[in-house]
Amino acid sequence: MYHPDAATTERVAAFEAWLDAGGVQYPLLAIAPSRYGLGITAAKDDGVARGDELLRIPLAMLLTQETAASSPFAGSLVAAWADADCPLPASAETPAGSDGGDDDDVVGGDGSDDGEALDGPSVEERTHTTSLERLVLYLYLIHARAERTTFHTPYIDLLPQVIDSTPVTYSPEVARLLAGTNMERTVAGIRSGLHALYDSHIRPLVARGVLDGDVFDMDSLLWAYSVFWSRCYGIPARDATGNLRLSAALVPLADILNHSGDVGVEYVTSLTDGYFALKTRTPTAAGCEVFSNYGDAKGNEKLLLTYGFAGPSVVEDTYFVQLSAGGAGHYLSLAAPLPDALVDEAQARTHASGTTASTHKLRALTHLLALFRARHLAAGVSAADDEAVLDAGVWPASGAELTLDERHCLYYRRGQSLILEAAMAAVETAIGALDLQPEKLWVAPARSEAGTQQVETWRTWASSVGLDLPISSPLRIPEAAALTRSAFVPWAAGGDRMAGALDQLLADPMVELELSTAFAIWIIYARHTPSAPLHGLAAALPAEHPSPVFASPSMRNVLAATPLFPALVDAMTVAKTEYDAVVAALSAESLGLAEETLALLAWPRYLWASACVDLHAMAVAGRTSDLVFLPIHPSAFVYSPHADAYAVARLDGSYEVVSVWLSENTTPGVPIPNAPLVEASNAEAALRFGAAAPGNTNDVLELQLSADDGDEVRLQFALGDGPAKWRATMARALYGDATQAPGDEVAQAGYEMLIGVVEERRALAAAAESVDVSCPADEGVVRYVASLVAAAETVLAAFK
């Protein structure tokens, strides 16, 4: 039970006096302590009966968007923003849920939108911008709290002055429980949006002295945001044209009522008589707490995000899924874990010609299963794990009792895991009902005699460690066939000194050895040591790597004239620094490595091995610092910026490579498209994988323009932006103001500048084509230079 201090008791008395003076009627109720803080109890001897009106409050007592907007403080804000050239956020009006018509009495209840606690945006719906009215309301709350001279001061004094029990304001210790969930991504977006709002509309006024920076700081904005969403009601109002709409409002006294899903309430707003009233549908005995209902249909996701609490029931919980950014959204639940609409969209996105309906559906279901597994693993725990902690009430490792916030997070997380687990089971059931074998992914045939022999070496080794061929989709790989951090421990225990040395260096915080560097050393060692674990894997790796680091001297001359060359030099410098450091560490006498072993670690070999790690190593889902080097032959995948990105899931005794996003699949015998770098430009892909693809929307064309004052202006044309933004970029560079620039002059100037760039890049491509290509790295350079030409030609077309 909450026990208020003397100061809180005084604030309650002042608040009650303010309510009485304002004509608020609540004869059946009394403000009293509850286990949730302040609450409201039934004050009369006979309690509260069904249908009783709990409270009636004049609309003039509400703190609304209109109240804030009509204040002198708001007027000073708008004027200051105009002086500071700050663009005003757009106004936003929400239509009321009721038809309204000419009737100014609007009735709502549990789960309706009319007069109830305003339904905070769900995890997937919250935008990172805000309307002008809402921004002014946030700032008015901060202003009123500081000034303490406004009409609503007694009400604002009673609000929590510190709010740290919602996901937006959690401490890092509590927020970690949301890692890998939809909530984590949403909270990051909300906080980022609020920081941007502060920088764009509050910081400029602080700099001009309009606002006090000690009062209007980032913490205060987070406070106002949390107060608004945790207490806001949607109150019907008439706009300037007479149409009915919902206005955001804080309703004193009503917002002290705590939530219970077991009660029924009815809200009445009379615009004619100017009051808001609340009636109960649930009787309450004398002295017991009277509850409101924030909405019957709200699941733990929305309750936690908006109000900061969640409960054990998961009946209303949903899990939101999108198959692509900006695409349709789908809600999964325990009652419907695999919606037909989701399967239909997956089938549409994975369509491939020449397949039967069953094979087509199998492909879609397999991709959904991969998506659900990756999402489930990202949280790092199962529903059963969280259930066990909730039942025990303590953390198993420390024995510390769960805090209330931690319990709420676990309720939410457990519900999300239960839905994903149900979704995975539903997909597996659907796949089983198709009565088909999974599709097979085949290793692509090698193009040369040496390559054929190398592929056969890999096949022989893969079979020896239990890696079945052809490989099923998703790819499941025995743990014994993978190079991992934990593998060094048993190898060292078995007497391998290199494994022991690497394990010791990785565990030493003073050495700071990267796991990727240790993998590269092991690959060199195992490749040249037949008795070493994973010798077959290391020996089967291609001797020729596609990275431009290994391009021939003639092709390097071409590279020197490309934007990639500085990054290439930097990469080799970093690799040499890593190499020198690790070889020096391994040479320590205490590690006991033989001279002939250390002699294997030549610089050219390390450069090759580290490039192999870049190509093969993948992060394990949900474990950001855990890498695994998988025995997937490189010719099994081809790079495509428009294809799937693959994630690694660690299962019992094996690793599974699962596709995270959907794309066109391919047929057996053809390399599988793979985009191992999310949102990677062709320069990044070429540097790591020797890969590039024309039309990559992540590419950026950069140009240098000499200004009249002699300064150099750098122009950037992102291929994903499109012609309109490219022309605006050019107009700003030439005229300063894109809206005042003559379109014909911009087009002409842009064309003259870009045609020279295109011609230079075409000449570069011709030089690359003239080189006698002698290795995969040279082929990669040719592809990269071709992508440079394509990018320049694409932007040029916007100025013709």
Automatic annotation (TrEMBL):
<dbReference type="InterPro" id="IPR046341">
    <property type="entry name" value="SET_dom_sf"/>
</dbReference>
<feature type="domain" description="SET">
    <location>
        <begin position="27"/>
        <end position="295"/>
    </location>
</feature>
<keyword id="KW-0808">Transferase</keyword>
<dbReference type="GO" id="GO:0016279">
    <property type="term" value="F:protein-lysine N-methyltransferase activity"/>
</dbReference>
<keyword id="KW-0489">Methyltransferase</keyword>
<dbReference type="InterPro" id="IPR050600">
    <property type="entry name" value="SETD3_SETD6_MTase"/>
</dbReference>
<dbReference type="InterPro" id="IPR001214">
    <property type="entry name" value="SET_dom"/>
</dbReference>
<feature type="compositionally biased region" description="Acidic residues">
    <location>
        <begin position="100"/>
        <end position="117"/>
    </location>
</feature>
<feature type="region of interest" description="Disordered">
    <location>
        <begin position="89"/>
        <end position="126"/>
    </location>
</feature>
<dbReference type="GO" id="GO:0032259">
    <property type="term" value="P:methylation"/>
</dbReference>
<protein>
    <submittedName>
        <fullName>Lysine N-methylase</fullName>
    </submittedName>
</protein>
